[in-house]
Request: fold
Amino acid sequence: MNKLEVRNLKLYYHTSKGVVRGLDGVSFHLDSGETLGVVGESGCGKTTLGTALLNMPTPPGRIEDGQVLLDGKSILQLSEGEFRRIIRWERISMVFQGAMNCLTPVYTVRKQMMETLQYHRPMEIAEAEERIRKYVNLVGLSEDVLRRYPHELSGGMKQRIVIAMALFLEPDVVICDEPTTALDVVVQAQIINLLKDLKRQLHLSFIFITHDLATEAEVSDRIMVMYAGKAVEIGTNEQIYGTQGPAHPYTRMLLAATPRLHRKVDQLAFIPGTPPDLLEPPAGCRFHPRCPLASARCRQEEPPLETIEPGHQAACWEVLS
Ligand SMILES: Nc1ncnc2c1ncn2[C@@H]1O[C@H](COP(=O)(O)OP(=O)(O)O)[C@@H](O)[C@H]1O
Ligand SMILES: [Mg+2]
Reply:
């Protein structure tokens, strides 16, 4: 059975200007112990997907439709109280984009972690202390960080604290939203190694969100590429990065725009234009205004996400035809 199965999930933002379709009907699954990478340019709905899985839309967002099954059980119809008690942080947790910069400046790391832990799961102080120490060690920090304040920590250390706090209720699915974006390259590599270790040690299922395909290739078993609130391609690492290359023109262009060690920077392509405004997404395939292969059909009819080979799906008329 899949750890997580997501069917036609939609989250819309009801703004004064109209309805922004941040997440517009996404379906995928996540296996136990697997890391699914979610990639796409900024504004494609990656963070919105994370908040939808936690049933925690950012105002004025609302989940409009769809199902999320955790170990085969549908969870979105639970009341807010039940969801908070048995699912959020307990079973599914999230390292929010930029969370490391939101640690309370006047609290020591110990107090910060203690309050968060006790809020979610009241327990004896000694037990809580022990659990905090365990997770601080697990993320590769020494216990003396517990006495420090956030401003006394490096970015990498703060990110490790935030990861420890996403783990210490022992969830089985952890969503990491751009966990390395604000860090320098060396620290990025360290955090990626940490996440790989944690996945092995704790048998976690990860959803790893990033706008960077190169980072994704390092950590993920499978990749879901998002564009304009939709999944446009899903495949294994091999199917996306292998010699055959990805199927969807958007993924191909993203990959061509990704710096890699063996490629000269002056050969880097970039994708002209920007992702569409999700107040009024383009008709047909949402990528068609930027797609070099777009035909008349692409401008009118939306391509479904279909299986093109086992384990590999794409939503593109050029690929399907
Ligand atoms: N709180 C919000 N209110 C209105 N629109 C939002 C809000 N959050 C995100 N959006 C819109 O939803 C779309 C997806 O955003 P987001 O999920 O943050 O993308 P990503 O994480 O891929 O950069 C964007 O068009 C963004 O402008
Ligand atoms: Mg985001």
Residues 4-91+171-320 form a domain with the Rossmann fold fold (CATH 3.40.50.300). The first helix runs from residue 46 to 53.
